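Revision sheet: structure tokens.
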Amino acid sequence: MLSEAVAASTLRLPEAPGVYLWKASDGDVLYVGKAIRLKSRVRSYVTGEAAQSLKTRALMEQATALETIVVPDEPSALILEANLIKEHRPRFNILLRDDKSYPYVKVTLQEDFPRVFVTRRITDDGARYFGPYADVGAMRRALNVVKRLFTVRSCRYDMPREMPERACLDFYIKRCKGPCVGAQSAREYQAMIDEVVAFLAGRTDDVRRQMRARMEAASQRMEFETAGEIRDALQHLDSIEEPTVVSDVGGGDRDVIGFARDGADACVSLLLVRAGKMVARDHQMIEHADDASEADILGAYMAGGYRARTNRAREVLVPFAFPDLAAFVAAVPDVDVRVPQRGARRELLDIAEQNARHLLEESRLETLEVDERAADPVYELGRELSLQRIPRSMVCFDNSTAQGRDNVGAVVWFENGRPKRSEYRSFRVRATDTAGEPDDFASMREVVGRYFTRRVAEGKPLPDLVVIDGGKGQLNAALEALTTVGLAQLPVASLAKREEEVFLAGRSEPVRLPRRSPGLRLLQRLRDETHRRAVGFNRQRRTARTITSALLQIDGIGPARRRALLSAFGSLEGIRDAAPEAIAALPGFSGALAERVRAALAAADPTAASPDNSRRDADSDASPPDPPPREHE
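Predicted:
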């Protein structure tokens, strides 16, 4: 726990920008944060104003010491915070997974005869770094292309101060043109390195144009062997470029950042657009984001993983603004950050977000056990509906009524794509319209409101997705109920029966999923199970009302004797088949009353009294609910 001396020292902190580090008793850094005004921010921890989340309360229980660093301005605080998080990797901070292990391609431009190789350390030595590469395979492919297209030296001589007496094997197999023995001039070698840098930066059109010009020049000089080598290199470039270029999107150079989140984990996808072509994709996994908002997570990536990149484009597209946007722009003045809402830029962001969701799903699937992989439709549904959180838990609501009577509602819960019957609930609905008739929208509003009010009061977990059986009207009624309960942030979708259209909150047009989509089939299964539950409870209510009406119409049978009959014989059929002596033996019954009961039931047609005899209810279901519905008040 924080000592009184440390708490008192926070009063002496300046109201200036800076970074603070909370430390444990063993000296480990628990958390690194930045502040525009150090004193106000740090004091909020001590006074309890910041201890609103479990994560913050746990931090203050473990923190015993505080260290602060004052900096000139907010951009400096942003950069220092990112560097300290990368250095200490505090357990309470949002972490960029394995950031230290990401490799770079280094071009030693500070040397007279530059080399190209892989490194995991960045130093301020005048070299040009490309990366970091989260996909090591993509980096290796890029290096292989460099080796195939360009004759970059592989030796480690400090040329021209160190020169070997004879060329190595690379010279004789034409993998190097021998600058170490004077067979290639420094000017020619540097021109080749310029092409290497352009290729690694994604400017393949520039490389192709320069190579074609050299080929034509060699041909005019009648150096046909050199021209043939360049021609072969051009053909190889064409063959390897095709699978890496996704599409021609236009608009010059851009970095497009997509975002996806699932609980405490998130993924940021980076699409590299160079000269209007999408040439590569990279990504970063993010951990420890339990209580952080999406904007905070994106800000952590921009200040850490993205700022560390050396081959940034001038224009950067992000899906939404983040709190430190102004500080980031001030710290990295060579980029123009935009948050597009429509048009071609927005379409690029959609592609990046799809990639982020896919990568996050793949990462989560790797951690699942074999028997959990049957939940694939859950991931497919999350992708198709563009949900920020994979809908592992889903609830569905439906109402049922018969000729304006016995209005009921039902809730079904699915976990990882499978029914969880212990979470099923049924409701007797009270909502009616002005004429006293059942109101479907008001019924949906009532059931959703009652369900979540009780769930919040009992502290039970909330679903990842709320599904409504119906169209836009039912969806809006459910949204009103959730807003009233304070759960407007829950994702809600409705499934309309006629065209199987999916309506989502905030979208005017429905989402039409392919008929063979696993996600749509999962929604249909959930909807049908809820419908079965609602219809089953409705039938149970009608049956109980029918039995009650038939018995109470008999002279001498009141509520007490009705309960005695049903308790003893179970149903109208059981009472009708019972012997008069058995009925007369019940408390409060006589032989005469027993005969009267049997005669009345024999004269009446019990099935005619049921509202769905003459015409089977359109909402009826062939199978009764299993297990018996549990009424939820």
